[in-house]
Amino acid sequence: MQLTWQHQGEPISMKRFLTNHGISMRVIKTIKQGNGDFIVNDWVEEGVITVYDGDVAGLRLPDETPDETVAISHQPLEVMYEDDNWLVVNKPAGLTSVPGPSNRTDTLVNRIKGHFEAEQAANQRPHLVTRLDRDTSGIVLVAKHRIAQGILSAPELADQMVKTYDAWIHGTLTPDKDTIDQPIGRVDDQPKREVVATGQRAITKYQVVGTGLAHDVSRVQLELVTGRTHQIRVHLTALGHPLLGDELYGGDLELIDRQALHATTLQFFDPFAQQQLSFEAPLPADLQQLDQR
């Protein structure tokens, strides 16, 4: 894997040049230890390296080989977008994101591994940038190599990522547009979380976008400012309106048999193409039914 950029401006050290492009000191140290190369104008350079105006400089790293401990699944994978750096998929409800004790053979990661194998991708280790609970449907962003993941996790780019979700609840929220700023923490060793004073700060913006639906259902659009575990589920429960179908948090199970939550849109800045990328995942059939009046 090789990544390069053209330098414009005063002479600069290779270290500063790479960090300016989001490359971590950990990666730079790895290359200095012999696991990769520094590149300037298609030549491998060593020692003290200066990048001059007009130079095309960067790095070369070994391709990422498959993790042999992760099984391959050839079950369907709905790909919304793919290039050399990113994979965007529409995850169905009921599919776990990563392998764990309850499922090690057919999770989203297993299916992505099968997809990478089938297309003979250069890098074969998926890096999930966003994750969804098993019963949440919608968009998941995957970095196709560790450099992409590292660059996008830098605060200046991570803060530009916008994720919106659609949720369905009984009743309606008052006011119909607000920001929830309440800390979230664990309840003992249970998977369930709660709003607790000792928890991590969690911020969710919401807006009611559909009322008067059948069975006194309302549709709410939410934007995550922070990304705590179960954040939307916990915040709506704290307001007295748990998600329909969310058994863990006391949601009504009569209308749908899974939590009524969908990761609808994703927008982020692609540092390689130097442009904004935006995606929208259509609602699955079970959630479309909740919009009926």
What distinguishing features does this structure have?
alpha+beta; 293 residues; 10-stranded mixed beta sheet; 17% helix; 32% strand; Pseudouridine synthase; 7 helices; 4-stranded antiparallel beta sheet; elongated
Q: Cα distance, first to last residue? A: 53 Å
Q: What's the alpha carbon Rg, rounded to whole Å?
A: 22 Å
Estimate the global geometry from the Cα principal axes: elongated
Helicity, as a percent range: 10-25%
- Number of helical segments with 4 or more residues: 7
How big a fraction of the residues is strand? 25-35%
Task: Give the tally of structural domains.
Answer: 3
Low-confidence stretches: none
Task: Please summarize the sheet with the most strands.
Answer: 10 strands, mixed
Describe the structure.
By secondary structure, this protein is of the alpha+beta class. It has three domains: about 1-60, no CATH class; about 65-155, Pseudouridine synthase, CATH 3.30.2350; about 160-265, Pseudouridine synthase (2-Layer Sandwich). The protein has seven helices and 18 strands. Strands 7, 8, 9, 10, 11, 12, 15, 16, 17 and 18 form a ten-stranded mixed sheet that branches. Strands 1-6-3-4 form a four-stranded antiparallel sheet, with helices on one face. A hairpin with an 8-residue loop joins strand 9 (about 125-130) and strand 10 (about 135-145). The longest helix is centred in the middle third of the chain and has 11 residues, at about 110-120. It starts with a strand and ends in a 5-residue tail after the last helix. The model has no long low-confidence stretch (mean pLDDT about 95).
